[in-house]
Amino acid sequence: MKKIFTIILAIIGFFTANAQLECGTKVTGPPIRFSTKQQDSLRSILAVTTPYAVRVHITVFADDNGTNVAATNANVMRQFNNMVNQYQPQNICFILVDVRQVNSTDLNNHDADTEEAELNPYRITGCLNIFIHNSLPGLNGTAYAIPNTYLSLSGATIASTTNLTTMGHEAGHCFGLYHTFENFFGSENVTRNSGNACYDCDVDGDLLCDTAADDPTDPNGQVNSSCVYIGGRTDACGVAYNPPTTNIMTYGDRACRIVFTNGQGTRMRSMMITSGTLIPIVADNVVFAPATNSALTYTSGVGQDSGRDELYISNNTTDNYTVSGTAVRNLVSKKIYLKPGTRFTPASGGQVHVKVNPYCN
Length: 361
Description:
By secondary structure, this protein is an alpha/beta fold. Among the domains are: 23-177 and 260-279, Collagenase (Catalytic Domain); 284-356, no CATH class. Helices cover 20% and strands 22% of the residues. It has helices at 2-18, 36-44, 73-87, 105-108, 155-159, 166-174, 262-274; strands spanning 52-62, 92-103, 128-133, 141-142, 150-154, 282-283, 286-289, 296-298, 302-306, 310-313, 321-325, 328-333, 335-338, 342-346, 351-356. Strands 1, 2, 3, 4, 5 and 6 form a six-stranded mixed β-sheet that branches. A three-stranded parallel β-sheet has the order 7-10-13, with no helix packed on it. Helix 3 (73-87) links the parallel strand 1 and strand 2 (92-103).
């Protein structure tokens, strides 16, 4: 009897694991669209084609006593490097500010629907915050909103060697991308002929015309292991779907998802320079701290100063940069210059990390 009971539990566990949702990110607001005029204006000042560097801070939760860590550092870095490679073709790179462990049994077992606000004390200003939880019931990940500056991932997702894109997928939501099968604004039709009465790719679906219309009926179960759509469904105009099974913002077979389209890349970069939410997480090429004629002194809290190419600390001797007490500061860039006037005297619990960032070419 005990053996039968064990088998039943195993079967239940199998179906529960396979019922896991890919993503908990929901659309709640009005559509975020960029008109042709807006895009042309951004292109005219090279804003859309300029490379962008996004600061990233990763928090891995563990239980109160430091056990049951949500993810190993090796797996975190493996998935982070996957995301770096996914975004590189779209001229977006990442500055890894830090990977830290926070001991909190409560946050290690996180209900994204009801406990989102509990993340607020752990968010690092000026960064895309990636939180990793041992348990994220019902989800592989969520970005909470579109756009946003923080996301959550389950430890199982980070450990997976077949799911290589959920971190990049949720970051895509943070940067303003919708699911390719989104139907919050209306289900998208297949045609890309603007003269066709069924043409709606700029106002329905994911609002992008260079991502093929995706079947919204059952996006997680209609792609086989060969990355072929097998749903056989048609859009509202009777045209057969041929969805983008290799796109990172779809569901389907996770091993198939490898690319963003150029239209998605343009949208993300456009969001980074027009969204008040995202502007603060994009690093300048050259950063001075202090940036003005006034000293900077840190005695507590966790923070960062970082630039894509160069970071100057205490550029002028009258503009001192001081870290003391329990303050934790992360200084990250390709090149870092510690000029006269820099003072690091952290006490117990305080730290200063000076790190060269290898993730922006």
